[in-house]
Design goal:
alpha/beta, six-stranded parallel sheet, 11 helices
């Protein structure tokens, strides 16, 4: 019996050391590469750890279980990165075109509709990453189903997700169909990316076909826009940029598209749009950040009275 105990001591130490090394590896990866994908983390773990000789299969199973728990924990943290906002009750069920900021802070929210979409969504994400800008993406359910990895990347890189219905249809829908369009999209966003959203944008900005009414009654904030790029009509790049800045203002929300068709003009215009806003002294925020700024501003004004 004593001999058995002596054999188990080194095994226990090895397991403990292995668990510690895995924990440190995951921790370092979270610090050094916060935007690394789940697949890359999994590959790194598998390639950088050498098998531990153990006497029993049960011990190896426990090690694999530990690795899985740590990976799951990391995935959960990555999924909520940049998405841990709390929507104030004043915005639940409200329709918002821009934020009311009494101090005139020069901030603007860039929003992108109709994705995720092959090529153009990735191109938009590349540009935003290069310029250290976070955006808000209003996504279509059937596109999430077709391109789930693109949605995962949007969330992993710290952008915010909003609901843009399942089919992106304009015609009138009864209450049951409207509920399907909105609720199923929110559910799929959660299943694919692990985040829930209470931001909604009706396709085409149409408020009378049933989906906006369902979203309002379900306490979504209905996010419209104050500046329309009109990129869905595929204008020349200079015209697209002029469209954005024609009505741009502090606290504004800019409408662009990363999906739903050929978005090459938007991709070409986006770097110049970002540069021009910065030259005018603007900073970029997500829609939840914009609403939080308005909330704080209004509380500050109320406290002065």
């Amino acid at each position: 019996m004593e001999n058995n105990k002596q054999l188990l001591w080194p095994q226990g130490i090895l397991v403990a050391l292995f668990a510690l090394s895995v924990s440190l590896s995951v921790g370092l990866m979270m610090l050094v590469k916060p935007t690394t994908s789940d697949a890359q983390i999994r590959q790194s773990l598998n390639s950088n750890t050498t098998p531990v000789p153990v006497a029993k299969i049960g011990t190896q199973e426990r090690i694999e279980g530990l690795k899985e728990i740590m990976l799951t924990s990391w995935q959960q943290q990555a999924q909520v990165k940049g998405f841990s906002y709390v929507l104030s009750p004043r915005f639940q069920g409200a329709t918002i075109k821009s934020a009311q900021l009494s101090q005139g802070q020069k901030v603007i929210a860039l929003t992108f509709d109709d994705g995720p979409w092959p090529e153009s969504t990735a191109q938009v994400l590349d540009i935003l990453k290069e310029n250290n800008v976070k955006g808000t993406f209003f996504v279509v359910g059937q596109n999430i189903k077709n391109y789930p990895d693109l949605l995962k990347r949007v969330v992993a890189e710290g952008h915010v997700i909003g609901n843009h219905t399942w089919h992106h249809r304009y015609h009138f829908m009864n209450a049951q169909v409207a509920a399907y369009e909105v609720a199923n999209t929110t559910d799929l966003i959660y299943k694919v990316a692990g985040v829930k959203t209470n931001l909604f944008r009706p396709p085409g900005g149409i408020m009378t076909n049933g989906v906006a009414n369902y979203a309002r009654n379900s306490k979504y904030a209905i996010i419209m826009w104050s500046s329309d790029s009109i990129d869905y009509s595929q204008p020349r790049v200079p015209n697209l940029i002029n469209n954005v800045f024609r009505t741009a203002k502090p606290g504004g929300i800019v409408l662009m598209h990363d999906g739903g068709g050929d978005r090459s003009q938007t991709v070409q215009a986006l770097p110049e749009i970002i540069a021009k806003f910065r030259n005018q002294g603007y900073s970029f925020v997500t829609v939840p950040e914009l609403l939080e700024m308005q909330e704080k501003d209004q509380k500050r004004i109320a406290n002065k009275k």
